[in-house]
Write a sequence for this structure.
């Protein structure tokens, strides 16, 4: 594995004692339906406050998303996505946190990198024409995610004969194409894409297989399961009551070697990970005394 994951202004250790510390990526949606009212300025204030809270709670990355990728969601025109993402990105640049932009659009990638984004997170795996060109001349991190089909159709009838092997094969092909294009391997992290063209069984097979995915591709893994239907399926809980289940999933992912967990509930996940790390790594908590 490379020694570090390079993410713009930041780099994350992948070897040595620091490597065991997982990175909490807090989710910041800047879609209109994620604000309590319609105004753009109030939306921006809300987003900034939410980002500040997540930073205090232990997030070391924030993932800004302006396009809803719920199954069946309509795609957002590029101008509208820029109007949502760019003000938040500029506002958040004053915070000491790595800024990721969740987008599939090369034009949004380019603008985001000009504004100083530290990572581009593309659920489409940089497959859009011009996506690789958009990120080539940069040192931003790149999250390469697996998705079967498209957000509009992915949950219709996901099928695999061996989901872990097929996800590994897809990611390997894309990593090879990206490095052949001239992109440094040290910028890439991989993500099996929980919920993107997968049944509940596929999702749990991937969770159990995370270590294998990491070891076969020798790249850091990002896992995003927060509040997804795979959590609802085993807890029987609706979206708004999936926090504890999501924390359990984040711990399971880190136990399987995931480096980054993408979550809504930053405080709870960060606390759970701290206790987990103190319980599993004798060096994680050497200075502490008392209760
Ligand atoms: C993911 C994502 C994920 C990465 C979303 C949701 C859907 N990016 N963007 N991995 N999910 N890298 O959060 O429910 O799993 S949007």
């Amino acid at each position: 594995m490379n020694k570090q994951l390079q993410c713009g202004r930041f780099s994350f250790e992948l070897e040595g004692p620091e490597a065991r510390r997982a990175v909490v990526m807090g989710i910041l949606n800047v879609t209109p339906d994620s604000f309590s009212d319609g105004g753009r300025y109030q939306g921006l204030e809300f987003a900034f406050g939410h980002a500040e809270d997540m930073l205090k709670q232990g997030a070391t990355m924030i993932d800004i998303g302006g396009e809803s990728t719920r199954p069946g969601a309509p795609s957002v025109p590029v101008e509208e996505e820029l109007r949502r993402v760019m003000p938040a990105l500029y506002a958040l640049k004053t915070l000491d946190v790595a800024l990721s932009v969740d987008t599939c659009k090369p034009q949004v990638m380019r603008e985001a990198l000009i504004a100083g984004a530290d990572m581009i997170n593309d659920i489409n795996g940089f497959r859009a024409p011009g996506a690789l060109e958009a990120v080539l001349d940069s040192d931003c991190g790149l999250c390469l995610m697996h998705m079967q089909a498209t957000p509009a159709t992915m949950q219709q009838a996901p099928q695999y004969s061996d989901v872990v092997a097929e996800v590994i094969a897809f990611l390997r092909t894309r990593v090879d194409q990206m490095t052949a294009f001239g992109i440094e391997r040290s910028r890439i992290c991989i993500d099996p894409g929980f919920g993107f063209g997968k049944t509940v069984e596929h999702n749990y097979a991937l969770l159990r297989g995370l270590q294998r995915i990491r070891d076969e591709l020798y790249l850091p893994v990002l896992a995003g399961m927060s509040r997804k239907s795979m959590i609802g399926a085993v807890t029987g809980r609706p979206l708004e009551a999936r926090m504890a289940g999501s924390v359990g999933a984040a711990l399971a992912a880190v136990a399987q070697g995931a480096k980054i967990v993408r979550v809504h509930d930053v405080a709870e996940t960060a606390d759970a990970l701290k206790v987990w790390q103190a319980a599993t790594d004798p060096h994680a908590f050497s200075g502490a005394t008392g209760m």
Q: What stands out?
A: Strands lie at 4-7, 10-13, 23-29, 61-65, 98-102, 119-122, 141-145, 188-191, 222-223, 260-263. The pocket of 7PJ is lined by residues 69, 102, 121, 123, 143, 145, 191, 193-194, 222, 224, 228, 262 (CB under 6 Å).
